[in-house]
């Protein structure tokens, strides 16, 4: 099979290789999926660069990157009950603590990481789900009923943020999303947010409260916790929830502890790979339901060939993109 891999961490143009690898064999509880598309995420790029979680060592002789993908099941191992050959599926956790990810024509993976892809949904869109959609869905709907609640979503123009807006709105929340500039404002508005606030504003806290007509925030989805913790301490209502999945700008955040304490704030750290099976299934079922009803907008920035994996990684490193970056296999329909 054709695949992309790296044998050491470093710059994409220096370490990514494209060539032939053996087709994997599914083990007990695993299925073999012929991949039609592979999604590229920031975590994949950081792993290849050796900067994810501060770790630079390579745990395997080589790594086929990417956690997300979509394709068709062609073979099942012993004990499989959820999927059968011929099923269209989207995949998560492809390269989480594994050597073989989705940047290849085939992947053997636990059937519990495969989910139904409706016939009306393209493989490219399916490959753009995984990490962003499960993170966004669980961050918004996984911690209680949002109906009538005020929800603040930081980075609303990013892949996770824009999906989170849609999940929160479908759950009945009043959604304020932050971004920067006119392009972000338009991207956020098209996702259905009730209000946009520019995170570069010197009156950010006041801008958010103006958007909510003075109401404090009940639930926050935070991509830059360290940079925004002080603002959150002013904006959150008592017993509010903060779900954070990133803090790239401030790696060692200062926590306004007593402000959080005396509001009884619930602080949740979300790493999508560590969702329980029931949490993952619940989020995936919500994603599928919206897809089937044509109610989930998943923008694609670029679709490239597998041989263009280097370009795809460089696009992810470019903060100006809007939407997912997906690799398509040459023979995919």
What this model shows, in words?
- The chain has 333 residues and is α/β, with parallel strands linked by helices.
- It has eleven helices and 15 strands.
- Strands 3, 4, 5, 6, 7, 14 and 15 form a seven-stranded mixed β-sheet that branches. A six-stranded parallel β-sheet has the order 10-9-8-11-12-13, sandwiched between helices. Strands 1-2 form a two-stranded antiparallel sheet.
- Strand 12 (236-244), helix 9 and strand 13 (266-269) form a beta-alpha-beta unit.
- Helix 4 (130-141) packs across helix 10 (277-292) and helix 7 packs across helix 8 (225-235).
- The chain is globular, with a radius of gyration of 20 Å.
- The two termini are 17 Å apart.
- The model has no long low-confidence stretch (mean pLDDT 96).
For this entry, give a set of tags.
alpha/beta; Quinone Oxidoreductase, Chain A, domain 1; 2 domains; 7-stranded mixed β-sheet; 6-stranded parallel β-sheet; 25% strand; globular
Please bin the fraction of helical residues. Answer: 25-40%
> What structural class should be given to the helix and strand makeup?
alpha/beta
Spatial gap, N to C terminus: 17 Å
Query: Mean pLDDT across all residues, rounded?
Result: 96
Number of strands: 15
Low-confidence stretches: none
Q: What shape does the CA trace take? A: globular
Largest sheet: 7 strands, mixed
Q: If helices are DSSP runs of H or I spanning 4 or more residues, what is the number of helices? A: 11
CATH top level class name of the largest domain: Alpha Beta
Radius of gyration (CA) equals 20 Å
CATH superfamily of the largest domain: Medium-chain alcohol dehydrogenases, catalytic domain
Q: What is the beta-strand fraction?
A: 25-35%
């Amino acid at each position: 099979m054709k695949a992309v891999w790296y044998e050491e961490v470093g710059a994409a143009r220096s370490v990514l290789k494209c060539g032939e690898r053996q087709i994997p064999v599914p083990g007990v509880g695993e299925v073999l999926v012929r991949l039609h598309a592979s999604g590229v995420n920031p975590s994949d790029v950081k792993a290849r660069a050796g900067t994810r979680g501060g770790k630079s060592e390579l745990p395997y002789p080589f790594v086929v990157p990417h956690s997300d993908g979509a394709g068709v099941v062609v073979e099942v191992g012993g004990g499989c009950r959820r999927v059968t050959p011929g099923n269209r599926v989207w995949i998560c956790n492809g390269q989480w603590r594994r050597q073989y990810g989705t940047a290849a024509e085939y992947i053997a993976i636990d059937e519990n990481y495969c989910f139904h892809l409706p016939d009306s949904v393209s493989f490219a869109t399916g490959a753009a789900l995984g990490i962003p959609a499960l993170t966004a869905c669980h961050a918004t709907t996984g911690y209680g009923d949002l109906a009538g609640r005020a929800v603040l979503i930081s980075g609303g123009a990013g892949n996770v943020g824009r999906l989170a807006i849609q999940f929160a709105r479908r759950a009945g929340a009043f959604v304020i999303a932050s971004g920067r500039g006119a392009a972000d404002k338009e991207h956020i508005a098209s996702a259905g947010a009730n209000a946009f606030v520019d995170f570069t504003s010197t009156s950010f806290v006041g801008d958010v409260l103006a958007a909510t007509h003075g109401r404090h925030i009940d639930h926050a989805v935070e991509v830059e916790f360290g940079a925004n913790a002080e603002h959150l301490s002013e904006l959150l209502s008592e017993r509010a929830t903060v779900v954070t999945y990133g803090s790239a700008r401030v790696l060692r955040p200062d926590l306004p502890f007593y402000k959080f304490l005396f509001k009884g704030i619930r602080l949740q750290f979300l790493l999508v790979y560590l969702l329980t099976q029931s949490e993952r299934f619940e989020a995936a079922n919500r994603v599928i339901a919206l897809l089937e009803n044509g109610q989930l907008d998943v923008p694609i920035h670029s679709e490239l060939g597998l041989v263009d994996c280097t370009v795809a990684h460089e696009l992810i490193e470019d903060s100006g993109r809007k939407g997912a970056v997906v690799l398509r296999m040459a023979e995919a329909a």
